[in-house]
Amino acid sequence: MSFALSEVSVRYAASAQRASLSGISLAAQPGEQIALIGPSGAGKTTLLQVLACGIAPTEGKLELFGQQPWSMPDAGRHAMRRRLFLAPQTPPLPPRQRVVTAVLAGMLPQWSIGRALRSLFAPVAAERAFEALSRFDLGDKLYLRVDRLSGGERQRCSLARLLVSEAGLLLVDEPLSALDPVLAERTLAVLQQEARDRRATLACSLHQVDLALARFPRIVGLRDGRIMFDLPREAVTDDMIAKLYRDAGAPGGQADMDAPAEPGQPARQPLAARCF
Ligand SMILES: Nc1ncnc2c1ncn2[C@@H]1O[C@H](COP(=O)(O)OP(=O)(O)OP(=O)(O)O)[C@@H](O)[C@H]1O
Ligand SMILES: [Mg+2]
């Protein structure tokens, strides 16, 4: 098992009106590719942060690679973090850093402190950064400063870090939000191929529902901190998608997955309504 969550809840503050995750149970076998979908505020980022050991569950149990990181001493948990890679929703790229250095940060967990320090002055594996960037059509940006990149280039630069890492659990939070539809497809294809090549488990949150359904074998729908469905993509219906997003964010807008379909509801929502 790559990861297993049992009855995990997260409450950021004791005073919070509701938990950000409520009783989540979810497990993945090595090599599985899972898309996390759901409206804004559903808990996708929180779930990925829990899997990355960035947030401790308030309740419930997290297992990673068969071990419980929060029952370990800090050093053990840090060592476990080296086996996973989280590409955050907002990439933390220092603006004045060169692209090559920013990408090579993905290799830091594998490096000694001495090697990491040397690389700050003269990148020690520039060819690895170049290869990774080239897979996202950014090979020519190797020595540019990060703050010279466009938003979409910056996003792919952050994903190039994932390619140079050696992690076996890849957690990717909205990797396509700054990309046009063609680049989004190509970028996702690279990420998924990389996960297959290294037999890594991939959990990826996406607002592009059509892309999630087209490319991921397993779809987890989250809303209000709960799993509304966890199904092979063939089993996910338009009705489920419509209910997952219906009135999200509106006062009293609770998803009711058991509610019958409304009479006269079209079989397929228009694309614009299904892609956030
Ligand atoms: N650091 C935090 N402190 C307090 N509440 C938080 C914090 N981070 C997230 N939340 C709350 O937890 C809930 C889930 O947020 P989360 O970021 O996981 O949602 P999301 O599904 O990733 O949304 P989006 O699609 O907009 O990125 C939201 O209600 C959010 O306001
Ligand atoms: Mg998020």
From TrEMBL:
<feature type="domain" description="ABC transporter">
    <location>
        <begin position="5"/>
        <end position="249"/>
    </location>
</feature>
<dbReference type="GO" id="GO:0016887">
    <property type="term" value="F:ATP hydrolysis activity"/>
</dbReference>
<keyword id="KW-0547">Nucleotide-binding</keyword>
<keyword id="KW-1003">Cell membrane</keyword>
<dbReference type="Pfam" id="PF00005">
    <property type="entry name" value="ABC_tran"/>
</dbReference>
<dbReference type="InterPro" id="IPR003593">
    <property type="entry name" value="AAA+_ATPase"/>
</dbReference>
<dbReference type="GO" id="GO:0005524">
    <property type="term" value="F:ATP binding"/>
</dbReference>
<keyword id="KW-0067">ATP-binding</keyword>
<protein>
    <submittedName>
        <fullName>ATP-binding cassette domain-containing protein</fullName>
    </submittedName>
</protein>
<dbReference type="InterPro" id="IPR003439">
    <property type="entry name" value="ABC_transporter-like_ATP-bd"/>
</dbReference>
<dbReference type="GO" id="GO:0005886">
    <property type="term" value="C:plasma membrane"/>
</dbReference>
<feature type="region of interest" description="Disordered">
    <location>
        <begin position="252"/>
        <end position="276"/>
    </location>
</feature>
<dbReference type="InterPro" id="IPR027417">
    <property type="entry name" value="P-loop_NTPase"/>
</dbReference>
<dbReference type="GO" id="GO:0022857">
    <property type="term" value="F:transmembrane transporter activity"/>
</dbReference>
<keyword id="KW-0472">Membrane</keyword>
<dbReference type="InterPro" id="IPR015854">
    <property type="entry name" value="ABC_transpr_LolD-like"/>
</dbReference>
